[in-house]
Amino acid sequence: MNIIVCIKQVPDTSEVKIDPVTKTLIREGVPSIINPEDKNALEEAIRIRERYGGKVTVITMGPQQAEEALREALAMGADEAYLLSDKAFAGADTCATAKTLATMIKKLEYDLVFCGRQAIDGDTAQVGPQLAEQLGIPQVTYVKEIKIEGDSLIVKRTLEDGYEVIKVKMPVLLTATKELNTPRYPSIKRIFEAYREKEVKIVTASELGIDPQEVGLKGSPTRVIATTTPETERAGEIFTGNVKECVQNLVQRLVEKHLIL
Fold it and tell me: What parts of the sequence cross the membrane (predicted)?
């Protein structure tokens, strides 16, 4: 079973601030992590390999610092890692990102492709479906449970009001939710191996054989004009005293605001 997992290095959003002038994320000094649901995707891929054999290959697109995320993935148990890194890839939207990843994946053998449901820095949930379209394979999104039956998967998919069960043949792309599993912590031995013994293969645009006009900012049909934080004007009010007094004050405020009669 050959499994490919696409991950993304993202800023730890609990630390992110927005520049009031440029309206862009301030990334300097902000710690980076593997996108959480990408870790769920990787964990599931490793579990499948442990049960059925095969190989887990992890891929990311980004600057040189994204190698750190791939090292962590190797420490978790991935077998191979590829970093797609080139100035031509910079500024890519989801469509251009999917095209770049697909070009790399087409050079590899695979039965399954995993992605996280969505990245916490963009929240688009578009790269997985667009990648499946580029690869020409079926996709199942919002996956919370997987069972393998021969060359098919029985997949439980989360919906807003429940779930649905889908049977799909491989090769297929799946996007993982946090309900799928609990990612493991790497052992000291695996961390040592990931940083001292394993290789992260860096792949450029020319090595991919991809037209620079079709990827990165030049190949992106969409643009992010600005990023802002929502401004709220809500003000809370705390009632003190015994329970009866607090309830009376609360009811009075609700009546004053015409929320109750």
Answer: none
CB atoms within 10 A of CB 221: 8
What's this model's pTM, rounded to 2 decimal places?
Answer: 0.83
- pLDDT digit string (tens) for 165-218? 999 999 999 999 999 999 999 999 999 999 999 999 999 999 999 999 999 999
φ and ψ at 34, to 5 degrees?
-75, 135
Domain that holds residue 140: 2-219
Task: For residue 101, give every residue at least 6 positions away whose Cβ sits within 8 Å of its Cβ, in sequence order, or none.
Answer: 6, 59, 61, 84, 127, 131, 134
Give the DSSP letter of residue 170. S
* Peptide bond before residue 183 is cis, with ω within 30 degrees of 0: no
Establish if 149 belongs to a structural domain: yes
Domain total of the chain: 1
CATH number of the domain encompassing residue 52: 3.40.50.620
In this prediction, residue 191 carries a pLDDT of 95
Q: Are 165 and 149 in contact (CB under 8 A)?
A: no
